[in-house]
From TrEMBL:
PANTHER family: HEPATOCELLULAR CARCINOMA-ASSOCIATED ANTIGEN, PROTEIN-LYSINE METHYLTRANSFERASE METTL21C. This is Uncharacterized protein. GO terms for molecular function: methyltransferase activity. GO terms for biological process: methylation. Residues 12-26, 295-324 have a biased composition (Acidic residues). Pfam families: Methyltransf_16. Keywords: Methyltransferase, S-adenosyl-L-methionine, Transferase. It comes from Crenichthys baileyi (White River springfish). InterPro entries: Methyltransf_16 (IPR019410), SAM-dependent_MTases_sf (IPR029063). Residues 1-30, 291-342 are annotated as: Disordered. The keyword ATP-binding does not apply.
């Protein structure tokens, strides 16, 4: 049919116009359908159940506190020392009276500690890096609006040495400075100490809670004690709460001793000299190791659990039995006497009314429900988007990337989801990570592969580096596939990671790496990655990319890896 578009055609029949309109509508409809298809292709790796931000519920100061965590930084998580300090402030509210006091929190993160301080009557300013303040502000607004005498404030604060310009001491003076878990895993400990010294002037009390994890923690604590007059208010194991006063002027040093007297400490007694019976206890337990221990107990008592509900009942009963064996007293923080031995029994003083419980996320891949428990002590214990993307890629492209009977190694396995999916797809999997993460990893793999897979997956410690030929000789440890997801995020071992990839990705091995670009360092690593291997980008959406790579040593290995479709897109 001719198109009616010529300037010389003045009229056209009504029938031809109607036919033309129908054709245009049909063309438009087809274009619309194509757009929908393209949109579906772009979102094709959305998992059946996507990990969403955790919402934790606590009870302090007689209020229910709802905290939403973040995903992309340590500041978006709830940490054990923060829970310890919250409960401590709540329990000893009469001795540590925050009513009407100016309170500053440094490294506020999710804002839980600031919320508790505000509910206790403090005039609170919560500070952290600018990029995390949105979540902090939302949590403070949600939990303090209409409940507090003073509306808490939120302000950006980057630790450093020149704070007198931005926060002059003559203007910004505080009765209390609070900090919890601010030492963990970063390179700004000197700046943190300088910031503490800037705000902790004579007349200010600094209260800092921390869980010791690395040697750098011990070095910081030593420097902290040199910088301030310090006392240990409470401790159990690696979790300690310190009170500190400025060394600028002897008159002000003793102002905090009144608090110690109210708490029942003797004059001249330091935290190091306290006896075990007098130390306050905490009920926070290492969740990752507990999960593995519970799994072992389940194997003894029952060969197989019929449902997740039964598993939770067993775990609950185990916790109850443990509490009875320890003969603790009711959770009011009071001290009772043991009838048999006359020894003082101290209640776990900082167990919150509703303690932070690790998420149990359920995913669906390879036709199976996969139950994943996260942990809270590191990036490796969280679920990240690139891991979900890689799981969907392997599940939806199982005929292209056939793992059946193949030897598969995963680097930085974390919670173990990728390793579980690879096992369910028929691979013989070895999941590796740092030794301290293997407890939770082992528990998740056991829970989700037992009785389901041809090959039982293995767990092994692996620290990335250059000397792996001694511990993992290439003649013995050879793999068909090496998998990695979100292993580049926020650490200083990118060169070691690339060396590890090179060590395991020999001719005949295919490396599949999924990553979400967040920092400039990601781009630098990607550039070095592409120089090191023959690579092809097999899937992407925005900053999420999945690469397939093979060794540059040996054409046979290269052809084997790159013979797979380089334009492969994720299937819905």
């Amino acid at each position: 049919m001719e198109t009616v578009c010529s300037p010389f055609v003045e009229e056209a029949s009504s029938d031809s116009i109607e036919e033309e309109n129908e054709e245009e509508d049909k063309d438009y409809s087809q274009k619309e359908d194509l757009a929908v298809v393209k949109k579906q292709e772009l979102t094709a790796w959305a998992p059946y159940f996507y990990s969403r931000v955790t919402k934790e519920v606590y009870n302090y100061v007689g209020h229910e506190i709802v905290i939403e965590e973040g995903l992309d930084s340590y500041a978006g998580m709830i940490w054990p020392a923060a829970l310890a300090l919250c409960h401590y402030l709540d329990t000893y509210r009469d001795q540590l009276n925050l009513v009407g006091k100016a309170v500053l929190e440094i490294g506020a993160g999710t804002g839980l500690l600031s919320v508790v301080a505000a509910l206790l009557g403090g005039w609170v300013t919560a500070t952290d890096l600018p990029e995390v303040l949105n979540n902090t502000r939302v949590n403070l607004c949600r939990n303090t609006r209409g409940r507090c005498r003073h509306t808490p404030q939120v302000a950006p604060l980057s630790w450093g040495y020149d704070l007198e310009h931005t926060y002059p001491s003559s203007v910004y003076r505080y009765d209390y400075v609070l900090a919890a878990e601010v030492v963990y895993h970063h390179d700004f400990l000197d700046e943190l100490l300088a910031t503490m010294k800037h705000f902790c002037k004579p007349g200010t009390t600094l209260i800092w809670a921390n869980k010791i994890r690395f040697e750098s923690d011990l070095v910081f604590i030593e420097n902290f004690k040199k910088a301030f007059h310090t006392r240990v208010l409470a401790e159990e194991g690696d979790v300690k709460i310190y009170m500190a006063m400025s060394r600028e002027g002897d008159d002000e040093v003793d102002q905090g001793l009144e608090i110690q007297d109210l708490l029942g400490e003797e004059d001249g007694r330091t935290g190091e000299e306290e006896s075990t019976d007098d130390k306050l206890s905490c009920g926070f337990q290492e969740v990752g190791s507990n999960i593995l221990e519970d799994e072992r107990q389940e194997e003894v008592e029952e060969e197989e659990l019929e449902s997740d509900e039964e598993e939770e009942e067993i775990l609950t009963s185990k916790d109850d039995e443990t509490d009875e064996q320890k003969e603790t007293v009711p959770s009011n923080g009071n001290i009772s006497e043991h009838d048999d031995s006359n020894q003082t029994v101290v209640r776990r003083n900082w167990v919150p009314s509703i303690i932070c419980r690790i998420d149990k996320d359920i995913y669906h891949y390879v036709g199976q429900d996969i139950v994943i428990y996260e942990s809270i002590d590191s990036y490796g214990a969280m679920m990240w988007p690139a891991a979900l993307a890689l799981c969907s890629f392997l599940d939806n492209n199982r005929h292209t990337v056939d793992l059946q009977g193949k030897e598969v190694l995963e680097l930085g396995a974390g919670t173990g989801l990728v390793a579980i999916v690879a096992s369910l797809l028929g691979a013989s999997v070895t999941a590796t990570d740092l030794p301290e993460l293997l407890g939770n990893l082992q528990a998740n793999l056991m829970r989700n592969t037992r009785g389901r897979c041809r090959h039982t997956p293995h767990v092994a410690p692996l620290s990335w580096g250059y000397d792996l030929e001694h511990t993992y000789p290439s003649s013995v440890y050879r793999y068909d596939y090496v998998l990695a997801a979100d292993v580049v995020y926020h650490h200083d071992f990118l060169d070691e990671l690339l060396a590890t990839m090179k060590h395991f990705c020999k001719p005949g091995t295919t490396l599949i790496w999924a990553n979400k670009v967040r920092f400039e360092s990601d781009l630098v690593f990607t550039e070095n990655f592409e120089k090191t291997f023959h690579t092809s980008l097999v899937a992407e959406e925005g900053e999420m990319k999945i690469y397939m790579a093979t060794s540059r040593f040996g054409d046979g290995g290269d052809r084997d890896g790159l013979s797979r479709p380089t334009g492969c897109r994720l299937k819905a």
